[in-house]
Amino acid sequence: MTQKKHLLEPGWVYVVDDSAPALKYAEWHLRRLGWRVFAFPDARACVQALGSHAPEAMLLDIGLPDGSGYVIATRLRRNTATRRMRIVAYTGMVAEERQVLPEAGFDAVIAKPGRAEDFARHLPTPQDGDSLVRLASWKSAAAATSPGSALLRHCA
């Protein structure tokens, strides 16, 4: 039986932000670190993508016009297939948000726009040691188990 943690796609990161400049800025930094970046301008597009692919990590804006980053993070933590995903908050309101971020399931926070060292510290270069094994495990299990299906039901 494939372990649930193998459902996370190694080397992939989702970046979710409704601010186009912040989205492009984060995408540029993460690509330089070796991530395969998938950028989403809103919560709905991200949640739909989670229905078929679960990234290894996510950089998630808190205040999205069509959804809450808190709700998405909380749902990801409750889902056994995405529980181990690295989730980093990407917000301009760090002082106000810092207390509630861990409770919602965030691993870290980057204050917008973020510095190169912030991205490197909280979303370091993905490790490829066993990526091929993990990728094969994910692909074989993905057809049977959609990691975002429960999330889609709760956030749609």
From TrEMBL:
SUPFAM superfamilies: CheY-like. Residues 12-127 form the Response regulatory domain. Pfam families: Response_reg. The keyword Chloroplast does not apply. Keywords: Phosphoprotein. It comes from the Bacteria. This is Response regulator. It comes from Ramlibacter aquaticus. The lineage of its organism: Bacteria, Pseudomonadati, Pseudomonadota, Betaproteobacteria, Burkholderiales.
